[in-house]
Amino acid sequence: MFSLIVLTFNSRAYIKDCLDSILTQRCKDFEVIVVDNGSKDGTTAFIRTNYPGVILVKNKENLGAAKARNQGIEIARGEWLLAMDCDVRLEENFVGRLVEAAKHISSEVGMIQPKILYPDKLRIFSAGIFISPLKRFYDIGRGKSDSGRFNSPGYVFGACSAAALYRRRMLDDIKDVWGYFDERLFFLLEDADLSWRAQEAGWKAWFYPHLACYHYGNSSRTSKKLRQYLCWKNRYTILNKHKLSKLKLFIISICYDIPRAIFLFFTNPYYTDGLKK
Q: SS3 for 82?
């Protein structure tokens, strides 16, 4: 069995397309878990009325993407778990292809990354996560044309949790005191941290372009400034938990983090507010 875990937060405008794309799949050997982070727009009532077969977890407040995904993982029964954002639509027969991919994938692969496209079906949203020498995380191919260069399967650093398949055995292996996804990160980069921990534990991520889905992006309508600040804050947490030497951290700080901190100090009110706390 597969488990599909969908996160919602004031997602009434997106959830119908998302769940319809799941429940109309030809392959039916899966369960659907929706974890709602305190929606106030009628999302949960709509799901209860129109999708009674869906397992619904309703939080009273927004606990963050990392915590919500962990809640879904805890109750999921599948050997493989597909994490999905609410504004993702699966391509026809996505689950069937997923089943076949999981059957033949190497035992060292703990993550499968589908090709995530923008809704126009012409541009890449993510073909996996890349980590730079300065330990910055990027979505591979973001905004680029869906050309032939993104049609070849292969290993990547990690999987973008907008739509990512995780092996249950891997998740149990890398879970730490902060959860499967690090709940301190709340939102943004939690998938990069999980991918990094998986790499350190000997697991690999595989990009499989024959699986395609479509993602709007930023359905939570989080402002650019707040996203900048959360990325900065979460990056600091991640760098301090992974196996980097003091010399490497110093070089990274001089080349990127200190200049970035100065820039945010003068341009981002969330950053300056955070310094006062």
A: strand
CA distances from 271 to 22, 38, 213 (A): 39, 26, 34
Partners of residue 207 on adjacent β-strands: 113, 154
Q: The domain 2-215 is classified under which CATH number: 3.60.15.10, 3.90.550.10, 3.30.1050.10, 3.20.20.60? A: 3.90.550.10
CA 164 to chain CA mean position, Å: 6
Pairing state of beta strands 124-126 and 137-139?
A: unpaired
**Strand ranges (DSSP E) for the chain?**
2-8, 30-37, 55-59, 80-85, 88-90, 109-117, 124-126, 129-131, 137-139, 154-156, 163-167, 204-215
CA distance 22 to 32: 8
pLDDT of 103-125, one tens digit each?
Answer: 889 999 999 999 999 999 999 99
pTM above 0.90, yes or no: yes
What average pLDDT does this structure show over 89-102? 91
